[in-house]
Amino acid sequence: MAASPASGWRANIVIYAALAANLGIAVAKFVAAAISGSSSMLTEGVHSLVDTGNQGLLLYGQYRAKRPPDSDHPFGYGRELYFWAFIVAILIFGLGAGVSVYEGWKHIAAPEELRDPLINYVVLAIAFALEGTSWWIAMREFAKSKGDHGWWQAIRDSKDPSGFIVLFEDSAALAGLVVAAAGVWASHHWGDPRIDGWASIVIGVILAGVAMLLARESKGLLIGERANPDMVAAIRALLEAEPCITHVNHVRTIHTAPDRVFVAVSADFVDTLPMGEAETLIERLEQRLKAQEPKLSSIYIRPEKREDAVDAVAMG
User: Fold this and answer.
1) H or E element in which residue 78 lies
2) Of the residues 81, 207, 211, 230, which has the maximum number of CB atoms within 10 A of its CB?
3) 149-185 core/surface letters (b: 16 or more CB in 10 A; e: else)
């Protein structure tokens, strides 16, 4: 059954909230930068613009990932979301961090005359309120999904990059706003516009760090990560409870999408089990596994003697 528009909106509330906040903030920051000549404000404007584009790419990736399997992609297109998440990390590094460092260096090398900073403080305060709201929504939604795991472990185990990318982006944005405000204040307090340029470089370093962290997590998902260990243990337990299976050689899983898992099982069946009954048993086991673990989209159960499976692993 297709998801209703309301359920689709609810599922992507974190992305929509971040997109709306960043779009409005980007416009305000560019206006403030043009009026005040602040390097860090211009940098923050580029940062918000890049974040807006990133949310658009995540929504596009989700849309592409929902396409059904076909002859060329029998396991579906779910991992396309991971590709676009990796592109987002590259954009944060290349555009966000790169432009920030460049603008900072340019204003250090050729400082501009200081102007009234009031407009900067007004825009930064509004931006902090909007970014803070987006960050709070992202934190709330991620807290619901992480369960009893710690924050860092939940990020490492998460198979849906949309949530933690927005969370990291908003965290970096809030840190950048604090740095930008400090840079504007310090520049006027000491009468040195170069300080504002250094603030831009600091913002660039923050974005570069976040980008590398997101790239690492996205790369792991793109290459292929196993399912949650609890799911693997539950699959193994169900199979080991079957009297006609003498040993479960291995259970190998891989996420083909955030909510879809492929599992390949090697199991040693009793030698007296006829082929026809084995086929019926495998079909019944697949039905039970899908009922127990709804995320299992594809199941492959291979009858294999225990010693043969051990030899295959040793030779591999």
Assistant:
1) none
2) 207
3) eeeeebbeebbbbbbbbbbbbbbbbbbbbebbbebbb
Q: What is the per-residue burial (b if ≥16 Cβ within 10 Å, else e) of 275-312?
A: eeeeeebbeebbeebeeebebbbbbebebbbeeebeee
pLDDT by residue, tens only, the chain of 316 residues: 344 344 444 457 778 888 888 888 888 888 888 887 777 778 778 878 888 888 899 889 888 888 988 888 888 888 899 999 999 988 888 888 888 898 889 889 988 777 778 888 888 898 888 888 888 988 888 888 776 777 778 888 888 888 788 888 889 889 988 998 999 899 888 989 899 889 989 999 998 999 999 898 888 888 888 998 899 999 999 999 999 999 999 999 999 988 899 999 999 999 888 988 999 999 999 999 999 999 999 999 999 888 766 554 443 4
Residue 308: domain span: 229-315
Indicate whether 38 and 123 sit together in one domain: yes
Indicate whether 190 and 165 sit together in one domain: yes
Q: Which amino acid is at 144?
A: K
Euclidean distance between CA atoms 95 and 86, whole angstroms? 14
Q: Under DSSP, is residue 155 helix (H, G, I), strand (E, B) or coil?
A: helix
User: Of 171, 201, 223, which residue constitutes the final position of a domain?
Assistant: 223
Distance between CA atoms of residues 142 and 115, nearest Å: 41
Q: Is the pTM of this model over 0.90?
A: no
The domain boundary residue, chosen from 202, 223, 244: 223
